[in-house]
Amino acid sequence: MKSLQKRFLIIAAVLAACLYFSFPLEKRINLGLDLKGGMHLVLRVQTEKLTDDAKKDAVQRAMEILRNRIDGLGVGETVIQRQGEDQILIQLPGVTDRDKALSIIGKVAQLEFKLVSDDQALLSKALAGEVDDAHDLKYVKTDKDRYPVLVEKATALSGETVADARVDFDQQAFGQPRISLSFNSEGSKKFASITQKNTNRRLAIVLDGEVLSAPNIKEPILSGNAEITGMFTFDEANLLALSLRSGALPAPMQIEEERTVGPLLGKDSIDAGLKATIFGLLAVVVFMVIYYFASGLVADLALVCNLFIITGIMGFLNVMLPDFQATLTLPGIAGIILTLGMAVDANVLINERIREEMANGRPLQAAVTNGFNKAFTAIFDSNLTSLIAAFMLFQFGSGPIKGFAITLAIGLLSSMFTALFISRAILEFLVQKRWLKSFKSLSLLNNAKFDFIAIRHFCYAISLVIIIIGMYSFWSKKDAAYGIDFSGGQIQEYQFEKPVHANELRTALTENGVTNFVIQQFEKDPTTVIVRSNDDNYDKTIETFQTKLSDNPFQILRVEKVGPVVGHALRKKALMAILFALAGILIYVGFRFKHFDFATAGVVALLHDVVVTVGILMLMNRQIDLLVVTALLTITGYSINDTIVIYDRVRENLHKLKKTTLRETLNISVNETLSRTIITSLTSLIVVVILFFFGGEVLNTFALSLIIGFVAGIYSTIFIATPLVLALQKKTGRK
Fold it and tell me: Taking 90 as the threshold, does the pLDDT of residue 27 lie above it?
């Protein structure tokens, strides 16, 4: 009893700490950009435009300038990190004004002052197309028109000498916003000298190669101040002033990857995620009570504790290790839901073992002890192999995928603790107090004696046919098989105030010159539209909707853009993640079972599940994206759980049933664990089906992949992995 008291003290301490670090949720748990809205950008510094000496620290200088600009916008909790040799990762939580953010981030802000030639003959020649080595033909925009100017190629004064840039108003131009510049001491001297020597000439103010204005130098300017006037709005002037204060970027920036999520979609995602979590938890809770009675209630209590421990660990990491940032993303919510379903696996395994011990004549207390002891190995092995898959997701994933991997890993560790420690303590306490006098539960397929091995060749043939058809569909689609994550392109999602028709939008976009696009709508929500394209046509799409559908206001839900280089890199990383996960599982299972025949058969079955899932998705006209790869790695972790449970029973029976053949041992082991396989698969499928229907559009294909993969996993564990062990071990003499 003293041992139980110590365990309950540990449980109480853990739960108290987790509750402390869980609440208030909005302060303890960091929400990802996909939940609270914001921007995720990967920018490439175009260093190829620089000399070898400027390339050395170009990325670092660009990061500092971007950080100053973003700080000037007042955005909190930003992330600015170097990525690779010439890329910068930027995350802007809560920033949903895409145009404003891109204008401040993407503008080089290379300010130059250049003298204008008043030679009308040279200007005429330039307008006629004759090249002048000393001058450039430029145009200055006015409120009504634009006029040509011939500016010297040589820079009279660069923007590096600007000390400050502020916005004020030109009272002579009816309060038009303008930018007041002040130079440092060096700049002030140079500017004074230029204006003294060139009185009555025009001085062009050039920003990123565009002439903003070309005022006449009426008199020498000795104050060290200058003004930039133009047709600015206040916001435009403010952003330009901020860019000038921060300094010019060392090179142009190219957006390689963009994911912008509007606040409305973020709210919808949270609502959908919470709904799916609540429904999933309730479904599992009700099922466990119906099937296992009192022990089901204990398992449900452990599940609730599991949920608090997950949020508590995430809160703890965010408070104690702020640089780690355990962020809750939409896939992370899916990870929590999935963890709840998978956590049932351990409780079912324990309860089935306890029931077996009772059937063998053990008293209840001994049955509970033996049940937990015998289930431990399978629970430990299956969760560790799932952690391998989660690690690979974290290693090769990005953004929300890392959030899913972290949540899944925390959930797996938490479920082991709750199943093996909390459930055990509660059950042993109830037995010792004699409040639990018997172990009652429903039964399913007890004493089953199916000959699964006998139909292995038929199953091999069925799998081969499905794989060939699916892979043919995959290869025939080529790049169309991939989402923009892997093929590159752009997705824009809008929600209109009133229902819209795809044909109407298609016609309007085509008339406005938008090409190579596909419009997608959903029957259940005719106000929402997705525009997919290979090119960046965001500006023209917005312009079309604003002009052609002016009577139907809209909101931007999300914009995602992936360049072909990033798409290729993500595709490579996804493949590496799957291959490394399979290799890690192969090595672990091989050493754990001291025979690589078991491991090889298990990994072949996992590869079968991945290929079958991809093939069926292709036949259903779904695309492969990062979330699908996340699902595939989750499937490998889940499927190996089933396989390891059967392998664990095979290992046990090989020692216990020494007179039986290997074929008989395999069949006996599959039949003895069949009840557990069906129950855990059923509970997990219930959770995933709920996620499919209530998790929202973003997680729809992810959930569908899990449904296909889980069903394939059940099938492959029984009809592929187990028979393959027999085929691979025939050389040992056991048949």
Answer: no
303 and 418 Cβ atoms separated by less than 8 Å: yes
Q: Which fold has domain 38-108+249-260?
A: Alpha-Beta Plaits (3.30.70)
Cα-only R_g, the chain: 33
Cβ 234 vs Cβ 33: under 8 Å: no
HSE of 141, CA atoms in CB hemisphere, 13 A: 8
- Confidence at residue 506, expressed as pLDDT on a 0 to 100 scale: 92
Task: Answer for the pair 6, 296: CB distance below 8 angstroms, yes or no.
Answer: no
Whether the Cβ atoms of residue 467 and residue 608 lie closer than 8 Å to each other:
yes
HSE-CB for 234 with a 13 A CA cutoff: 3
Q: Rounded to an integer, what distance in angstroms lies between the CA atom of residue 466 and that of residue 484?
A: 26
How many C-beta atoms surround the C-beta of residue 316 within 10 A?
A: 17
Q: Nearest Cα to 403, choosing from 343, 487, 324? A: 324
Helix (H) or strand (E) holding 706: helix 700-716
DSSP letter for each residue of 367-393: HHHHHHHHHHHHHHHHHHHHHHHHHHH
Place of tokens 């479904």: 283
User: Would the pLDDT of 32 be above 90?
Assistant: no
At residue 168, the 3 state secondary structure works out as strand
With bands split at pLDDT 50, 70 and 90, how would you rate the model's confidence at 401?
confident
Domain boundaries defined on the chain: 38-108+249-260, 111-239, 262-477+567-732, 489-562
Q: What is the DSSP letter of 133?
A: T
CA trace torsion 557, 561, 567, 569 (10° rounding):
-100
Residue 149 near residue 116 (C-beta atoms within 8 A): yes
Amino acid found at 134 = A
Give the pLDDT score at 474.
95
**Cβ pair 15, 306 in contact under 8 A:** no
pLDDT over 60 (residue 731): no
Residue 524 has pLDDT above 80, yes or no: no
- CATH, range 489-562: 3.30.70.3400
For the segment 272-303, what is each residue's pLDDT rounded down to a tens digit?
888 888 888 888 899 999 999 999 999 999 98
Task: Determine the pLDDT at residue 323.
Answer: 66
Q: What are phi and psi of 694, to 5 degrees?
A: -120, -5
At residue 325, the pLDDT reads: 63
* Spatial separation of the C-alpha atoms in residues 612 and 306, rounded to whole Å: 32
Name residue 27's amino acid: K
How far apart CA 630 and CA 578 sit, in angstroms, is: 9
Coil vs helix vs strand at 202: strand
Q: Could you read off the pLDDT of 615-626 as tens digits, one per residue? A: 999 999 999 998
Residues 6+ apart with CB under 8 A from 90: 39, 40, 41, 42, 43, 66, 70, 78, 79, 80, 105
| Cis ω for the linkage preceding 24 (within 30 of 0) | yes
Is it true that 38-108+249-260 and 489-562 share their CATH fold? yes
pTM: 0.84
In one letter, which amino acid is 521? Answer: Q
Could you say which of 3.40.50.740, 3.30.1360.200, 3.20.20.70, 3.40.50.300 is the CATH number of the domain covering 111-239?
3.30.1360.200
Structure tokens that stand for 622 in this block: 């779904």
Q: What whole-number percentage of the chain has pLDDT above 70?
A: 98
